[in-house]
Fold:
Amino acid sequence: MTLYSEIMEQPERVSALLEVQRSNVEHIAEEIKKRDIRYVFLAARGTSDNAGRYANYLMGAMNRLPLALATPAFWRKDKNRAA
Structure:
């Protein structure tokens, strides 16, 4: 598999994902509206961080819902302990 072939299959993959997950996305959107959520705090690392940046775009730019993206490796229960 090449980078080019991975890029070229993205439309099909996104379409399949939306087909399978549409009801979950709609449910989450309903809950956000019902609970009057005003911001989102997301912890992510690695490729999840990239997905978080896209979520930031979707929730922020498209839906005007601010999203803060955090790096969980720096979050510790014991503040005196190094990350």
